[in-house]
Specification:
The complex is a heterodimer of chains A (429) and B (343).
Chain A (H helix, E strand, L loop, with lengths): L1 H22 L12 E8 L5 H10 L3 E8 L2 H14 L6 E5 H8 L22 H6 L11 E13 H6 L6 H7 L3 H15 L5 E3 L2 H12 L17 H15 L11 H9 L2 E7 H11 L7 E4 L7 E8 L7 H12 L1 H11 L2 E2 L8 H4 L11 H10 L10 H16 L5 H16 L1
Chain B lengths: L50 H33 L1 E3 L5 E3 L3 H7 L2 H33 L5 H7 L2 H4 L2 H11 L6 H8 L11 H29 L3 H9 L4 H29 L3 H6 L17 H10 L4 H32 L1
Antiparallel strand pairs in B: 1-2
Helix pairs in contact in B: 1-13, 3-8, 3-10, 8-10, 10-13, 12-13
Classes of the chains: A alpha/beta (429), B mainly alpha (343).
Chain lengths: 429, 343
């Protein structure tokens, strides 16, 4: 029995590893043959309820069941397990921008939308968006773009006023055409606010990623998937600018999506945050009605950028592929993207929508009636495609961790950079 | 991981020879069970064992072996197989032999995670068992509403670990946490509990202790109640006070239980996962802090498997963890044997 106890202990560990294989055996139960139940897996809120009803109306017998996971990390892990196991994933699944490179490694587990005419409708997506979900040889496209995270800068009007800075969004935008100007503005803010509990920016990592995605056509990996973190000047430049910001004492040192960060929106512990379109919903939720009108939106330093955004894919494990493909096409169509924008503010990835009056005139009353359509479109359309590489996520995590350790004063900039390079090396495998 | 700690309690054997075995006839007791009955099993003379009977026996015990083979043995062996590959979860897999194990030996992050795991284990378990013992002694006294208190100490244990993690993380929050707020009243600057090794270990240990002290107290309590009253009576007649009775009678008789609790705590402690994960709320939670100051072995395993998608390497970590637990279990078994000879 001693033996068994030990074996069971090991087995529990092993079970964790092979969990995907076992758990995913329990898939969905399908109804009668003529009725089709489509399972859609998303994270957060994609704003699709109206569209599901429309689709169900147009396709009698089709029922759509959506499962929405709140935690993106959790969602990614589950999706990877299900895709690797070849069963258990929904008929239509959302893939987040950061994960799409992973899934391109096993493109054969997804329906190739090029076989269903996606190449002919390519102009429905920003070119870099379409390229992100397409294999390097250009032959397979596993996902259709939903939204993009066109970048702007959200700021607190009340705190800016207190610090003696302009509050009008056009004037605020003029304060920071470049990131150096942004830091200089931050120093003025910090001097004017006269409190060490309020900082100019939430954390260094969001700024770092924004800068990195603006300046480069590739980041940690070149297009042959060699790790180039040390030789790509764009990475070090973004690092140095972020550290300069930290050294100037501008950062509230709040880790993204942590409890403190969430509380910071409400309590006003930071005055600016790089914000993509989908963040406006998040800020509203965290800051609450009491802060309505306190937040506003200005253009981001450096002109544009992207953070987040998703794709819809159809796993080949789906037993209703034809309807599922139709649904994915419907949800990512111009009408579908516009409907999602109306519901939850996700910025369409379809550039033909950018000049429509609906988007150009769209405002957000929570953000002091900021013209969100124009602001976020400007962020997205100024962006060039950036090659990331399959191991982007673990390397990015390693560099962000190192940057946070500098931010928290655990390491000097040089030590932190060395750690970033070393850990990136081991994360790249 | 908590399953492993939900084992049946082992009651201590009394010192008298006639009860050298252990009280509860469950799987766990066999850890310290007495040697099997030396008398050979006698069959009814002349009875012919029918074919049916010969099949029936193995058939009756087979469910355990089938389930064990499917959920115990197979994963262990398969994990070993995976660990000998460069096995990407979503990509190619190639045979690399022992390369993963070689890489692991030189992997600073692995040693860091092992140090964290053992460090948090010691920091959590030592005070936990002392508190549990004290608590058990208290609960063994004639106090008012005794059943209420006995049930009460188990409450933290049946609370969802996720809820515990979230609540404690809020208590230990840097800017708005209750702990820092309280410390602020005595002039302590706000502590970034996640930022330092000592503070993160301490906070996680408190979480673990809050959950498991009551559970262990109940095991100790069960053992305490099995100690025969007459020994105490004899001691009292000899003039031993309550403190002396506790150290000279209770503690020695509890030793097998202590070792059992240590073993079960070790298995749980080495697999510590949810508490430190939730403690690091927000992005990159799995790395256990910016410099991995509280990343445990299971977190590192998980990171390699599901962020890095290096399934082969993650399996290697799983196997080494298995060996670590086995070694600790072996040490424990040796201690039990020594204890017997002391008795």
């Amino acid at each position: 029995m001693m033996q068994n106890r030990r074996m069971r202990a090991g087995a529990a560990v092993a079970a964790l590893v092979t969990m995907g294989t076992f758990l995913s055996a329990c898939g969905g139960d399908d109804a009668a043959a003529d009725d089709v139940t489509l399972r859609v897996n998303v994270f957060g809120n994609f704003g699709y309820e109206k569209l599901y009803k429309q689709f169900e109306k147009d396709h009698p017998g089709v029922t759509i069941v959506e499962t929405a996971e709140g935690d993106l990390g959790q969602y990614n892990t589950q999706l990877i397990q299900k895709i690797a196991a070849g069963s258990g994933a929904g008929d239509v699944v959302a893939i987040e921008e950061g994960q799409v490179v992973n899934f391109l490694q096993s493109a054969d587990r997804f329906v190739n939308f090029q076989d269903h005419g996606s190449n002919e409708k390519k102009d429905q997506w920003l070119d870099w968006k379409y390229a992100q979900a397409t294999t390097a040889d250009g032959g397979t496209t596993i996902g259709l773009g939903t939204d993009v995270g066109g970048l702007a800068m959200c700021y607190r009007r009340d705190l800016f006023e207190k610090a003696g800075l302009p509050t009008d969004r056009e004037e605020v935008g003029k304060l920071w055409p470049t990131w150096d100007d942004y830091i200089a503005t931050g120093e003025k803010f910090q001097a004017g606010i006269g409190s060490d509990e309020v900082h100019f920016v939430d954390s260094a990592t969001n700024t770092y990623n924004s800068i990195l995605m603006q300046t480069a056509d590739h980041t940690y990996f070149d297009t042959d998937d060699n790790l180039v973190i040390e030789t790509n000047p764009a990475v070090k430049d973004a690092w140095d600018t972020s550290v300069a910001m930290v050294d100037a004492g501008l950062s509230a040192k709040l880790k993204s999506f942590s409890n403190e960060w969430n509380a910071g929106f409400k309590n006003g512990t930071f005055a600016t945050i790089a914000c993509p379109a989908w963040m406006t919903g998040y800020i509203k939720e965290q800051a609450g009605d009491g802060n309505a009108g306190n937040w506003d939106i200005a253009p981001v330093p450096g002109g544009g950028g992207n953070w987040g955004g998703s794709f819809l894919a159809v796993p080949t494990s789906s037993s209703h592929q034809d309807v599922a493909i139709e649904l994915a096409q419907f949800l990512t169509s111009a009408d579908g993207q516009m409907s999602a924008f109306d519901q939850v503010g996700n910025l369409p990835s379809n550039p033909t929508l950018y000049s429509t009056p609906e988007l150009e005139n769209a405002t957000n009353d929570y953000f002091n009636d900021a013209p969100v359509g124009q602001l976020f479109v400007a962020g997205a359309s100024n962006l060039r495609p950036v090659y990331l590489g399959a191991k982007n996520q673990p390397v990015r995590d390693a560099v962000e961790n190192a940057l946070r350790s500098v931010e928290n004063g655990q390491k000097s900039s040089e030590e932190g950079w060395q750690t970033a390079v070393d850990d990136a090396g081991s994360a790249a495998g | 991981m908590p399953d492993l700690r939900r084992a049946e309690p082992v009651l201590p054997g009394s010192s008298s020879g006639s009860r050298a075995g252990l009280a509860v006839p469950s799987g766990e007791t066999a850890v310290m069970a007495s040697p099997p009955d030396p008398r050979p099993r006698r069959r009814r003379s002349g009875a012919v064992v029918s074919r049916q009977e010969r099949i029936a026996g193995p058939l009756f015990v087979s469910p355990f072996f089938l389930v064990f083979a499917a959920f115990g043995l197979f994963p262990v062996v398969f994990t070993l197989w995976v660990s000998l590959h460069d096995w990407s979860l979503l990509g190619d897999r190639t045979w690399v032999g022992l390369d993963n194990y070689r890489a692991l030996v030189e992997d600073d992050h692995f040693w860091n995670a092992l140090t964290n795991t053992l460090g948090i284990f010691v920091l959590a378990t030592v005070p936990q068992l002392l508190m549990a013992l004290g608590l058990a002694a208290l609960l063994n006294e004639k106090i008012r509403a005794r059943t209420f208190w006995r049930m009460g100490v188990l409450l933290p244990n049946i609370t969802s670990v996720a809820a515990v993690g979230i609540i404690f993380t809020l208590l230990f929050a840097r800017d708005f946490g209750l702990v820092n707020w309280t410390l602020g009243h005595v002039g302590v600057d706000p502590i970034g509990w996640q930022d330092h090794r000592w503070s993160s270990w301490l906070a996680i240990s408190i979480m673990v202790d809050w959950r498991w002290t009551g559970y262990n107290a109940l095991i100790f309590l069960a053992a305490l109640q099995a100690v025969p009253r007459d020994i105490y009576e004899a001691a009292e007649i000899d003039g031993a006070n309550a403190w002396r009775q506790f150290w000279s009678i209770t503690v020695p008789l509890l030793r097998p239980t202590i070792l059992f609790v240590v073993l079960v705590s070790t298995i749980g402690g080495i697999q510590l996962f949810t508490e430190p994960l939730l403690f690091n709320s927000g992005a990159n939670a799995i790395t256990g802090g910016t410099t991995r100051q509280f990343q445990t072995l299971t977190m590192y395993l998980y990171e390699k498997a599901f962020t890095g998608l290096e399934f082969g390497y993650a399996s290697t970590i799983a196997w080494v963890m298995f060996l670590v637990i086995a070694v600790v279990g072996l040490v424990n078994a040796l201690l039990v044997r020594r204890l017997r000879s002391v008795d």
